[in-house]
Specification:
The chain is mainly alpha-helical. It is built from 4 helices and no strands. The chain has helices at 3-6, 10-42, 45-52, 57-80. Helix 2 (10-42) packs across helix 3 and helix 2 (10-42) crosses helix 4. The radius of gyration is 17 Å and the shape is elongated. The mean pLDDT is 95.
Length: 82
């Protein structure tokens, strides 16, 4: 079945959501740990916010992850849908 036919089915989108949301959460957690390991375990959440979210950094932080997770979800769902 072609990709364009698959995306017209509602089960495709429900599977897409089931793949994408957990992947997004995992990517965000790993990214926060990678960028701010010491601040997180020291309990310095102001430093975590300053490093990752303040001054418009949240747009880049989440924007890249949403983009990657969206296409990963499409790829995996397309690959596993028959």
């Amino acid at each position: 079945m072609k990709f364009t036919e698959k995306i017209k089915r509602s089960e495709f989108w429900s599977n897409f959501v089931r793949v994408t949301i957990p992947f997004f959460i995992i990517v965000v957690i790993i990214s926060l740990l990678w960028n701010s390991w010491t601040q997180i375990f020291a309990g310095d959440f102001d430093a975590v916010a300053k490093t990752n979210f303040n001054d418009g950094k949240w747009k880049t932080f989440f924007g890249v992850k949403v983009f990657v997770c969206f296409f990963y979800g499409l790829y995996i769902t397309n690959k596993n849908t028959k």
